[in-house]
């Protein structure tokens, strides 16, 4: 059984809202660095980046951070291909880093991302933006910017579909 | 795609899994090129380097790879250990298993020793062949393929359309065996060039063409790999003298000048300068021998990561996770 | 049990039904017309044949009793239906003197399960340098008629010529292990596509064929008897065929494993498949079967070569050569030769009984099932399917490549000179 919980239009609105919140919280875009977590976090970071750049009239920092090699469940999971880590030339030192991911669940991905950031340098702040927060946290980590809070049961699956990967924008809940 | 449980021979890989190693290594190289020198990936895991044969360079390469992934490394060298007192491969393996080895990297003078280690049930974790007798040296071939791709191809392509020559002692070379099968699997057309005494029986059935003469076709190749020639082969009458060998099968300045533009020269090392390769060739701009060493670490990191991550993988399905 | 009894309802290899009486260890009549007063044993149509004669067994005693002893080896022989085994001399010390061959011979008599016939070394210490005291061994109580340096080739042409000449004194035979030592230095397996791929040093067919070609010419030249051990290649079969056509006194043997297994098994790197001569190709296997079919190859011999576990539980190049074979010999040969349609059951039985007896000079076994011959008989259930199990062998060693094979033809009972040394699968203590 599947149920659409966010339509394309709702996703766009959520991204716009998150973009404004990020600017508000950080008092501008000067030291901002958006880091998407592959695969769909990168697409979301690109959209947020486009929004913020349009609002501010200038480009803000954008990159990607693959956390595969920082995961703590290596033993249990089949090996996965690595995705790109792309850090802009200035690095992360002193930046206000906003990690961007599609679904916020156990918190382990973000923990791995924080570890990965630790290897790269010392940002001024690290914030987290997610499209969907489905609960069931296993670590004391919270999101700063949330597109939609979605109460789920553990055995449900949240499927985020985004252009151009899936040909349309939607978030679907599968039982 | 399935990633194999062990890496014993190129036969364990298909084009998809071989490319997965190269692509993973490429990403690891990019990360290391940036600021991350050490990854926590294999923290708490123990990698044993079980070396029954001296090979400082290969051991150091694996050791560096494992340490960059935060694994604990135990170096178990046959010399000066119980192995030199006649302990069997089985007992050594059982000892390592009891000590909690998560993966064993084995170099052995006997062809097939890694497969015995993997198949006999003495070791639970993955086994990586770091060179066995005159059989295979799969990580060397992977790093060679990586280096060739890095210099001659863009992005994450295979080696379609490349012409690669492997010159020298094919008969006794595990590097040649692994490379012939890997490079051809990745789409390259491989030619082996050697005197008939240094070619294995039945090579006609291998995925390569065979030539006895280096001078005939040298200008055709995109990459030339020369193999180390060992002095004792001369004593065993495989060829009359080093001088004759070097004259007809050695890579030198004159031959280098005949190579096509952009062609590269590889050597698995250690080199016998003046025999299979002269100093001019080894140090020329065409030589990618130093890159091979650098890339070896990334390839071995990739192999350790992929083997220690789990037992099998379906890449297309995993993309969703 | 009385020492006179009648075996009734027996099926012979010729498929004919008959009965046979045994009195005081000797066959006294064959056919239905024998007296009806004695105990009758109903064989229920099972095969009755002379017990087998193996011209090529390694018993390992003296010197390697951890691998096999005369006691365990003869039990294995009986399990396989053998009534006589020729024991190769590569023991420690080497059986190159009357003393050693008499020791092995008397150990066989003590065990009393089958004839143990020592083969003497051709050269001292099997070193290929000097002739051993061949005549002394021939004249010893062991009455040696077969001489071999098996495990090593008598590669020196002159020495081989002398040996061939010398055994003419007592109509002996030299059994050659044909292997050119230079061409097979450190060799690990058949030289071919597979050895090249595996990086295991090759043992080329020519190394066997060149020696056989030389030796048949030598045998021709000096007019002696030559026997070729474990022929393994197509070329060897052709050379022996040619030699026989020329009238040269040459005989040849093939092992069950060479009639069935091929060199691709080495791809496992499991040394259970490491044997000398090595497993060859499919083409060779077919040539060997054809060789048996047309009589080029005279006999099936086991080359039973027991090794302790540690000699096989290691990397391939470090492992010992050899496979055990006594207990599975008939079933494997039956499958490879008879079931495959190459030869008749009768031909196989001859190749495992009378023919090896003739080559080995074992006079009382040469005539097979005849009145007056010793009652050395085997009862075999040809319909019975069984699984070869290395855990259940009589041999002290378990290095069989056939573990888990399902085969037909189970040896049920064995009579040795009128005594049941195995009855319905139970070996007499």
Strand order of the largest sheet of chain C: 5-16-17-18-19
What structural class should be given to the helix and strand makeup of chain C? alpha/beta
User: How many domain units of chain B?
Assistant: 2
Task: Supply the number of helical segments of chain C.
Answer: 11
Under CATH at level 1, the class of the largest domain in chain C stands as Alpha Beta
User: Using only CA atoms, what is the Rg of chain C?
Assistant: 21 Å
Report the count of strand segments of chain C. 19
- Total domains of chain C: 2
- Percent range of helical residues of chain B: 25-40%
Topology:
The complex is a heterotrimer of chains A (175), B (321) and C (429).
Chain A: E1 2-6, H1 8-26, E2 32-36, H2 40-56, E3 61-64, E4 96-104, H3 108-120, E5 125-133, E6 145-149, E7 157-161, E8 170-174
Helix pairs in contact in A: 1-2
Chain B: H1 15-33, E1 46-51, H2 56-68, E2 72-77, H3 89-98, E3 103-108, H4 113-119, E4 127-132, H5 138-152, E5 163-167, H6 174-185, E6 189-193, E7 209-211, E8 223-226, H7 231-235, H8 242-249, H9 253-258, E9 264-266, H10 279-282, H11 289-308, H12 315-318
Parallel strand pairs in B: 1-2, 1-3, 3-4, 5-6, 5-8, 6-7, 8-9
Chain C: E1 4-11, E2 17-23, E3 26-30, E4 39-42, E5 47-50, E6 52-57, H1 70-79, E7 82-87, H2 98-111, E8 115-118, H3 134-138, E9 146-147, H4 157-166, E10 173-176, E11 189-190, H5 193-198, E12 202-203, H6 205-222, E13 226-228, H7 234-245, E14 250-254, H8 282-293, E15 299-300, H9 329-339, H10 345-352, H11 354-360, E16 377-387, E17 406-416, E18 419-423, E19 426-427
Helix pairs in contact in C: 4-6, 6-7, 7-8
């Amino acid at each position: 059984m599947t149920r659409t919980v966010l339509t394309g239009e709702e996703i766009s609105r959520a991204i716009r809202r998150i973009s404004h919140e990020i600017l508000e919280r950080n008092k501008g875009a000067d030291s901002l660095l958006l880091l998407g977590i592959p695969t769909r976090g990168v697409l979301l970071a690109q959209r947020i980046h486009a929004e913020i750049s349009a609002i501010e009239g200038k480009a803000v920092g954008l990159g990607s951070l693959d956390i595969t090699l920082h995961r703590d469940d290596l033993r249990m999971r089949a090996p996965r291909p690595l995705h790109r880590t792309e850090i802009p030339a200035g690095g992360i030192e002193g930046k206000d880093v906003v990690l961007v991911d599609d679904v916020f669940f156990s918190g382990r991905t973000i923990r791995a991302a924080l570890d990965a950031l630790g290897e790269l340098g010392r940002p001024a702040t690290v914030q987290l933006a997610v499209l969907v927060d489905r609960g069931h946290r296993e670590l004391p980590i919270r999101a700063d910017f949330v597109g939609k809070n979605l109460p789920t049961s553990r055995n449900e699956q949240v499927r985020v579909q985004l252009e151009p990967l899936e040909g349309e924008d939607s978030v679907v809940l599968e039982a | 795609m399935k990633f194999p449980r062990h890496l014993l021979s190129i036969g364990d890989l298909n084009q998809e899994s071989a490319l997965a190693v190269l692509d993973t290594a490429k990403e690891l190289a990019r990360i290391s090129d940036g600021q991350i020198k050490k990854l926590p990936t294999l923290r708490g895991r123990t990698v044993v380097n079980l070396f029954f044969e001296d090979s400082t360079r290969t051991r150091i390469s694996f050791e560096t790879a494992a340490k960059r992934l935060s694994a604990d490394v135990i170096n178990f060298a046959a010399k000066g250990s119980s192995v030199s007192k006649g302990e069997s491969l089985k007992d050594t393996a059982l000892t390592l298993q009891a000590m909690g080895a998560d993966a064993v990297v084995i170099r052995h003078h006997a062809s097939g020793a890694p497969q015995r280690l993997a198949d006999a049930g003495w070791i639970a974790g993955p086994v990586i062949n770091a060179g066995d007798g005159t059989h295979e040296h799969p990580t060397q071939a992977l790093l060679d393929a990586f280096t060739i791709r890095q210099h001659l191809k863009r992005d994450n392509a295979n080696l379609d359309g490349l012409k690669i020559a492997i010159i020298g002692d094919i008969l006794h070379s595990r590097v040649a065996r692994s490379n012939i099968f890997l490079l051809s699997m990745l789409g390259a057309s491989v030619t082996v060039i050697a005197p008939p005494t240094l070619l294995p029986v039945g090579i006609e059935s291998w995925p390569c063409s065979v030539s006895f003469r280096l001078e005939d076709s040298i200008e055709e190749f995109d990459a030339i790999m020369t193999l180390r020639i060992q002095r004792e082969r001369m004593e065993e009458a495989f060829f009359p003298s080093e001088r004759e060998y070097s004259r007809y099968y050695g890579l030198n300045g004159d031959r280098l000048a005949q190579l096509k533009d952009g062609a590269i020269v590889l050597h698995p090392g250690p080199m016998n300068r003046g025999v299979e390769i002269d100093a001019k060739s080894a140090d020329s701009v065409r030589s990618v021998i130093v890159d091979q060493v650098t890339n070896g670490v990334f390839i071995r990191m990739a192999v350790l990561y992929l083997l220690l991550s789990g037992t099998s993988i379906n890449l297309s399905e995993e993309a969703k996770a | 049990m009385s020492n006179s009894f009648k075996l009734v309802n027996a099926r012979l290899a010729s498929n004919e039904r008959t009965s046979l009486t045994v009195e005081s260890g000797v066959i006294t009549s064959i056919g239905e017309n024998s007296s009806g007063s004695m105990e009758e044993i109903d064989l229920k149509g099972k095969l009755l044949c002379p017990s087998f004669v193996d011209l090529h067994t390694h018993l390992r005693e003296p010197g390697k009793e951890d691998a096999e002893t005369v006691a365990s080896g003869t039990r294995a022989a009986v399990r396989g239906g053998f009534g006589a085994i020729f024991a190769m001399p590569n023991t420690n010390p080497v059986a190159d003197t009357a003393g050693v061959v008499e020791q092995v011979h008397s150990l066989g008599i003590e065990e009393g399960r089958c004839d143990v016939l020592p083969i003497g070394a051709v050269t001292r210490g099997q070193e290929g340098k000097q002739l051993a005291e061949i005549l002394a061994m021939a004249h010893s109580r062991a009455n040696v008629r077969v001489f071999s340096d098996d495990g090593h080739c008598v590669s020196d042409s002159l020495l081989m010529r002398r040996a061939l000449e010398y055994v003419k004194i007592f109509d002996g035979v030299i059994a050659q292990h044909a292997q050119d030592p230079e061409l097979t230095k450190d060799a690990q397996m058949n030289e071919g596509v597979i050895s090249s791929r595996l990086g295991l040093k090759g043992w080329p067919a020519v190394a066997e064929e060149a020696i056989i070609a030389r030796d048949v010419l030598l045998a021709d030249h000096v007019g002696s008897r030559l026997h070729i051990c474990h022929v393994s290649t197509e070329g060897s079969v052709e050379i022996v065929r040619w030699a026989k056509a020329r009238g040269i006194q040459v005989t040849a043997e093939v092992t069950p494993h060479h009639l069935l297994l091929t060199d691709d098994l080495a791809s496992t790197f499991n040394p259970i498949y490491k044997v000398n001569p090595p497993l060859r190709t499919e083409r060779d296997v077919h040539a060997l079967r054809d060789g048996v079919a047309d009589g080029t190859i005279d006999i099936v011999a086991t080359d039973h070569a027991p090794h302790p576990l540690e000699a096989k539980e290691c990397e391939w190049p470090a492992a010992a050569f050899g496979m055990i074979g006594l207990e599975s010999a008939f079933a494997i040969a039956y499958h490879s030769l008879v079931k495959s349609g190459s030869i008749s059951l009768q031909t196989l039985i001859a190749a495992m009984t009378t023919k090896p007896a003739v080559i080995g000079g074992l006079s009382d076994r040469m005539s097979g099932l005849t009145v007056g011959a010793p009652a050395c008989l085997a009862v075999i259930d040809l319909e019975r399917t069984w699984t070869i199990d290395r855990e259940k062998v009589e041999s002290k060693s378990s290095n069989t490549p056939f573990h888990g094979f399902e085969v037909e033809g189970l040896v049920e009972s064995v009579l040795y000179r009128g005594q049941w040394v195995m009855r319905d699968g139970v070996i007499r203590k």
